[in-house]
Amino acid sequence: MSGYIYDNIDEYLKLGQTILSPTMYLGAGLQPYWMREAAYLPVADDAQALSAEDMEKLVNSCTTPEQRSTLEEAGAVDFIADSPSVGKYHAYVYKQDGGYLIVTLSLHVDSYLKQGLDCKCSDIHLPSACAPSWRRHGSLLPMWEGAPLFTKEDAECLVNSFLTEKEWERLREVGDVDFAYQNEHGRYRASVISQRLGYDICYRIINSKILTMEDINLPKEHVVPLTRFTNGLILVTGSVGSGKSTTLASIIDFINGDRKDHIITLEDPIETIFPCRECQVNQREVHKHTESFGRALRAALREDPDVIMVGEMRNLETISLALSAAETGHLVLGTLHTGSAARTIDRILDAFPVEERDHIRVMVSESLRGVFSQQLVPKKDGTGRVMALELLVNTAAIANCIREGKTFMIPGLIQTGKAQGMRLMDDSLQQLYKDGIISAQECKMRATDVVTMDKFLAANPEPAEAAAPTAQ
Predict the structure, then answer these.
(1) pLDDT over 70 (residue 251)
(2) Mean pLDDT, to the nearest integer, of 425-429?
(3) Annotation: CATH topology of 220-423
(4) Quick one: CA torsion of 10, 15, 20, 26, rounded to 10 degrees?
(5) How many CB atoms lie under 10 A from the CB of residue 337?
(6) 69: Cβ–Cβ under 8 A, 6 or more apart, which residues?
(7) What ranges in 75-182 are assigned the alpha helix state H?
(8) Architecture of the structural domain at 112-206
(9) Which of 248, 286, 281 is nearest to 267 (CA)?
(10) How confident is the model at residue 464 (pLDDT cuts 50, 70, 90)?
(11) Which of 28, 170, 186, 338 could form a disulfide with 344 if both were Cys (CB 3.0 to 4.6 A apart)?
């Protein structure tokens, strides 16, 4: 090696592997570049520029005579190659006036996951016929400008790079598979689906550190009393990507250190790993340790649990079993995809046949302890997202509304229940706006009562951006 000049492209691929760079950019007259935190950077400050002769040697090291013939005729060629050092990659080779240009694209998922971790993203998307992308601060964006589109073959290679034979079997059988994936850098919730153009891979990055209630701004003084009930139902609700898993993990982690009980978590897949602290913790994954949430819940009731966490209350069977468990001396925590506390109650009731709803209303009114309805709102300064929370605590008045089927009155009771820690989503949004954390646009766009929010914003106009000083 002399100034990072090599004759064989494998040497550059091995160099990129040291930082899990998803791409290498090698061109005549340029230093060799790799990618770090979604930016092309020289592999070293003192790296020499590659000459036209250097690039010709690199092209010869990775192409066949047929590929070189295509390159000379068409001016470009691309192909999937298999490096003995780093595995499969997609190479794009271009003929330019000053020499050749080679851009490589890694076909192992870890390279893209490392970029997402380094840039504090929530999700990574690796789909056929699209460029690699990520969700950062709530927005879905390409990982880097000019990223090549994955081909159908690229996506299949990416899937092959991390699926086990059992997961492959399920993917072929049903067309999709969800599971937890872990490498030396972190843990992820993985989803692979078969679609019209090939495979689509999506990862949710799981925090390696369990965030505390203080970290996510949960009102601890009102949440802790709910966690100390020996029975009942606590629900965390919101849309996909609203932080429900993080909130549940925070609450379970608190219980794990506060009580001396038996906790069973039922998840699809297991996300946060809870070490046994004061509690005994057993974690079961659907499709891996059990057939379904319903079957796992039935089995859990025979395992002498005190606290049961249900990752998702998807259907009538799961909701019914969760309510029964809450009634029979267990504290049950679960999630639903609803946007407010009142809609959460309606969603539970609507899951049951009409003839059973009177009985279910009584069950819910007696079992419910609290509902956390949340969304993640982009911060005004662009540094991340903050949680806006609606909190319902079950009181005698709310229980009576549920029993009588008057859930439309619940928002008014939340409004008057601030002494018990209750708050509406709009109250939370207004407070975040007053504190200068979110913009007026986000506040209005996410409001439940837009008319009232418009009046609030008119009475509390957003401060104008300070003008830049002019040169004298």
Answers:
(1) yes
(2) 97
(3) Rossmann fold (3.40.50)
(4) -70
(5) 16
(6) none
(7) 109-118, 152-160, 165-174
(8) 2-Layer Sandwich (3.30)
(9) 286
(10) low
(11) 338
